[in-house]
Specification:
Elements lengths: L9 H8 L6 H23 L6 H27 L1
Amino acid sequence: MVNMTISMDTELKKLLDKHPEMNWSEVARQAWRQKAEALELLDRLTANSKATDEDVMAISRKINKGIAKWHDEQRLKRKG
């Protein structure tokens, strides 16, 4: 396995530090995997398409917004 170094703002670091029980490396790994797999799916779906890279990125942004909205809704349900 390779190591990566990331940069984050101080505020985010403080938030993460509030939960030392979390394996933040695993959280990041899962998020990166999910994003990479979504991009791979887009590549496969658009392989024979006449869509431009801009079109693909627009679709990706819409998917990401939908996923974020779903996660926000789930979080609110759990708090409810």
